[in-house]
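Tokens as discussed.
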């Protein structure tokens, strides 16, 4: 069927990763006759049916949507050629490896097809734009979503996923050779089903600094994990079912830490704008305001940070990540709430605080506790980012060198060029 963007053929979206987000987009985009959906995955066996149903209970739409996956494979050279958009849907910590996996195929596509597929990340943290530049090259059109469009979960791998909370708008940053207008037209039908409810609207942010300073997971998860487990000896197991929920039981200690982190983030924003007035950080608003704006009436009590976190319906299903051990369960230090949010969240923020000569006691406390929990070394007790594992981090100093403005830009603005537009 003809596409509204490319008359005469279906648009091709290739999804990398098979987590919750990939399941939802595969189901929603696969239900749209204008799109061909491909999956690049290490687990092709779970997608034998090639049908994915997305459940949208209650305010999320009420009707299930079922879409078809056209191609499933493990080899980028077999899955990606002909793609209009290649979208990474996996954890932030795995982004470098994912980009390296597809880089040779993308380069071959440029030579053979005479065009560049757009590459995007469903959720980005840290200096993802500098990472894309270093691995995929300056000429690869790149975009990054500031937040995932919905909270979602996989019910049956390869077959059923559920949207548990949708956002009203999602902001997108694009590289200088990327058309936001085209990205918006392409991507919105893939993240929003065509019937049942009004989904997220994609809005443009002029540069990537708002991604790095995003008041979201990178301060929420460290505050909550520290608030719940800072008194734990990091050895003694907990009885299963006694930890409470990640958000629903958000306590005063976690809320105090989160408020402190949010205030430090806003201080970094103010100082960064003084140092680099060309950056646009208007979307970096206080966390409580951001949650209420994005989730609206899904937040039952907007009184303060604790009530906002604990009464957000969209957050209600989330649980602490744990692993089973002899005698019970312990928090999982190999989960994205730490692997993403410390080296690709708090460390890039701490890097900016150091470059701007700003105190950040809450960030220091979170980083020191988490790196002990993770058995990593990013920051010294003196507050210097000179630990043995700092090279794993996507901070502006690690990836962008001495120029602090690289937190937002990689290249001077140019007119986007693509035969997709």
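Sequence:
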């Amino acid at each position: 069927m003809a596409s509204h963007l490319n008359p005469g053929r279906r648009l091709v979206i290739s999804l990398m990763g098979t987590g919750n987000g990939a399941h939802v987009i595969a189901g929603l985009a696969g239900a749209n006759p204008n799109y061909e959906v491909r999956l690049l995955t290490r687990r092709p066996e779970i997608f034998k049916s090639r049908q994915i149903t997305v459940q949208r209970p209650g305010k999320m739409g009420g009707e299930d949507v079922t879409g078809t996956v056209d191609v499933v494979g493990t080899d980028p050279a077999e899955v990606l050629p002909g793609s209009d958009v290649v979208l990474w849907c996996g954890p932030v910590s795995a982004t470098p490896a994912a980009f390296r996996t597809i880089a040779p195929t993308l380069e071959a596509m440029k030579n053979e097809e005479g065009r560049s597929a757009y590459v995007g990340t469903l959720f980005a943290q840290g200096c993802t734009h500098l990472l894309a530049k270093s691995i995929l090259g300056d000429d690869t059109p790149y975009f990054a979503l500031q937040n995932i469009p919905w909270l979602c979960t996989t019910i049956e791998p390869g077959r059923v996923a559920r949207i548990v909370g949708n956002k009203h708008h999602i902001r997108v940053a694009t590289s200088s050779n990327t058309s936001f207008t085209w990205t918006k037209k392409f991507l919105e039908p893939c993240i929003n089903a065509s019937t049942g409810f009004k989904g997220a609207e994609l809005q443009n942010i002029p540069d990537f600094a708002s991604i790095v300073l995003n008041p979201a997971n990178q301060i929420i998860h460290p505050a909550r994990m520290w608030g719940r487990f800072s008194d734990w000896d990091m050895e003694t197991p907990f009885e299963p079912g006694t930890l409470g929920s990640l958000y629903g039981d958000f306590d005063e200690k976690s809320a105090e830490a989160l408020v402190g982190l949010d205030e430090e983030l806003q201080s970094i924003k103010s100082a960064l704008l003084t140092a680099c007035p060309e950056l646009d950080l208007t979307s970096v608003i206080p966390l409580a305001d951001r949650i209420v704006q994005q989730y609206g009436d899904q937040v039952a009590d907007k009184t303060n940070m604790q009530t906002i976190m604990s009464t957000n319906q969209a957050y209600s299903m989330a649980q602490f990540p744990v692993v089973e051990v002899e005698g019970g369960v312990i928090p999982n230090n190999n989960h994205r709430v730490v692997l993403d949010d410390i080296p690709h969240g708090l460390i890039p923020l701490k890097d900016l605080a150091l470059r701007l000569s700003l105190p950040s006691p809450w960030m220091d406390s979170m980083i020191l506790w988490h790196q002990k929990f993770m058995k990593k070394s990013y920051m010294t007790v003196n507050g210097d980012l000179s630990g043995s594992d700092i090279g794993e981090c996507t901070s502006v100093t690690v990836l962008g060198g001495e120029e602090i403005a690289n937190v937002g830009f990689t290249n001077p603005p140019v007119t986007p060029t693509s035969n997709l537009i």
